Amino acid sequence: MLMTIVGLYTFYILMRLYVSVMQIGFINQVKRKKAVLLGESEYLDAANYAVAKEKLSLLESMVEYALFFIWMGGMLAWFDEVLMMQSPILHTLYAVLGLILINSAVMLPFGWYAKFKIDAQYGFNRSSMGQYIKDTLISTVLTLLIGGLIVWGIASIINASELWWLWSFCFIFGVVILINMFFPTIRALFFDKVTPLENPELQEQIAALMEKTGFVSSGVFVSDASKRDARLNAYFGGLGKTKRVVLFDTLLQKLTPQELIAVLGHELGHFAHGDLYKNIAMVGVMLFGMFAAFGNLPESLYFQLGVNPSPHIMMMLFILLLPMVSFVMMPLMGLISRHNEYEADRMGSELGGAEHLISALTKLVSENKSFPLSHPIYRFFHTTHPPVIERLRALGSNIVADVTEDFTDPCPEL
């Protein structure tokens, strides 16, 4: 069983490497052709930025594979023995959170390099080293606190019921729902400073827009995201009474009011079609499958690893194998998500005008240095949004790209 899992994980890493190599080769090929959506220099900049990030992803994949091999090759058993203590709950907490902290510490330099080297080179990073360290420490503390409660909850369930995997799934799915409900509040409390939108005319337009779709929120807020990053973004967060509209200050600076209304119309399209609930349901299906599988792992696997089938070992295996399962699930989730994006674009064009949504999407591509073309296999595994060229075509824009039809991604009819 151990060799089967290692073989599957090896295949997963090889696929990730293959997809990244194909994407890098594709971008390096098409960046020499006529620019699409962007000026010549912007087009080349966006291509080089995408290649730089993908090269970093290649290295991340190899380090992730090395970590997996180290844990499965004996470190799980060694770590279990070193942390041996009288309290089973404390042992479980230290073991699981220890794995998370060790892996996070190993991967931390990649996040630093992406922000302070790649993003800084292309004009995105505005965060100071002090701000970065503060954010990292806050994230770590939140991970330990929230993660510790989750680990304690699952360990208690495993010890209390033979059907632990089913009740653990219900517990984790409840946590996912709570996170979606309170994410905007947590983000505003610890990371971004949000203030009420002070533009009465724009606020009135947004309120009218939300009324048309039945979206009831706790307010429209502006985030000071520009202190960390220059990219444009906005999001509707929360569930039920916790829903709120959050606009990045960078978005307000770069888009006209008409373009902003069109973008928000797109986001409201996701709400009107229940996309958030669909996404939560898809995550639920993935988690259910994983818990069902982990609840029926043969004892021979634990024997081969040199450990006992204890709660913390089960959770550590879950964490180690989660990236592989997510990668396998991503194509299906991406297919559904891309379909949802087209539907949201349709509503955005109806609520804010197709011409304004086209203009906004074009600006987003330019400001965020989003390379408009990608290899089909990369889109299949990684993208949740259709190629912006196809989105613009669906909105009525006549965009021409100097690539073969194999690289288009028309709206899937689901």
Structure at a glance:
The chain has 414 residues and is mainly alpha-helical. It is built from 14 helices and 4 strands.
Helix and strand pattern: HHHHHEHEEEHHHHHHHH
The separation of the N and C termini measures 37 Å
Number of helices: 14
Average pLDDT value?
A: 85
Please state the structural category: mainly alpha
Helix content: over 70%
- Please tally the β strands and state the result: 4
- Inertia-based shape: globular
Instruction: Please mark out the parts with pLDDT under 50 across 5 or more consecutive residues, or reply none.
Output: 404-414
Number of domains: 1
Strands in their spatial order, largest beta sheet = 1-2-4-3
Main β sheet profile: 4 strands, mixed
Q: What percentage of the residues does DSSP assign to strands (E)? A: under 5%
The whole-angstrom Rg is 23 Å
Keywords:
single chain; 414 residues; mainly alpha; four-stranded mixed β-sheet; globular; disordered C terminus
Could you describe the 3D structure shown?
Helices cover 72% and strands 4% of the residues. It is mainly alpha-helical. It has one domain (2-193, 271-407). It has a 4-stranded mixed beta sheet with strand order 1-2-4-3. Helix 3 (88-121) packs across helix 11, helix 4 packs antiparallel against helix 5 (164-190) and helix 5 (164-190) crosses helix 9. Mean pLDDT is 85; it is low at 404-414.
Would you spell out the secondary-structure blueprint of this structure?
Elements: H1 2-30, H2 40-82, H3 88-121, H4 129-160, H5 164-190, E1 194-196, H6 200-213, E2 220-223, E3 234-237, E4 244-248, H7 249-254, H8 257-272, H9 275-294, H10 299-305, H11 311-352, H12 354-367, H13 376-382, H14 388-394
Parallel strand pairs: 2-4
Antiparallel strand pairs: 1-2, 3-4
Helix pairs in contact: 1-2, 1-11, 2-3, 3-4, 3-11, 4-5, 5-9, 6-8, 8-11, 8-12, 9-11, 11-12, 11-13
